[in-house]
Amino acid sequence: MGIFSRTRDIVAANFTDLLDKAEDPAKMIRMIIMEMEETLVEVRASAARTIADQKEMRRQIAKLDRLQESWTEKAELALSKDREDLARAALMEKQKAGGMAESLRAEIQVLDDALRASEGDIAKLQGKLREARTRQNAIQSRLESAQNRTRMREMYAGPKVEEAFSRFDVLERRADYAEGRADALSLGAPPKTLEEEIAELRADEAVQAELEALKASRIAAE
């Protein structure tokens, strides 16, 4: 069963109330747009049939007008031959054709009124359809925004993040243990003797002397 029963229901519809009462606003707005599009197609098809009927009626009126002219000529011919009876009969046929033509003109006028009403309905339906599509875009944007916020919250506070940080803690503890082992190796080592310290100084002096010699040779080469 459709949401609306006729064009006027759509025109008078309050989308805000419909969406507020809906359990699934996105689904509701899709249904509304679908029914409005179907109704718009039906109204346009009806207007097209009315226009086609009017064209056919105008062709019939043109034929009836020519027929009246023909009966007039025939009545004049009959009178010229002193056949008043035939002239009267011809004029009666002319009146019948004229009556049919007038009836068709009146029907065309009724259809004109219906077409104007259909034109107004089409304009209103298009306006409501634009409004519904705007609402649909707004609802879709809100849903996407809410989904993005949910994903971000899950990213920041979800179990995967907690698991990752717990792994960081494990790595930090391993690094602390490795550093502790390195520090422990130096614990209890015997202090350097006087000779060892003097030997280190001599080694430093030798390295420094060689370094100075290299600098002097580079300056001389330049």
From TrEMBL:
Q: What is the lineage of its organism?
A: Bacteria, Pseudomonadati, Pseudomonadota, Alphaproteobacteria, Sphingomonadales
Swiss-Prot/TrEMBL keywords = Coiled coil
InterPro entries reported in the protein's UniProt record: Phageshock_PspA (IPR014319), PspA_VIPP1 (IPR007157)
Q: Does the keyword GTP-binding apply?
A: no
GO terms, biological process = phage shock
Q: Does the keyword Coiled coil apply?
A: yes
User: What family is this?
Assistant: Belongs to the PspA/Vipp/IM30 family.
Q: Which residues form a coiled coil?
A: 101-149
Q: What is this protein called?
A: Phage shock protein A @ Suppressor of sigma54-dependent transcription, PspA-like
Q: Which Pfam families match?
A: PspA_IM30 (PF04012)
A GO CC annotation given for this chain: cytosol
Q: Which organism is it from?
A: uncultured Sphingosinicella sp
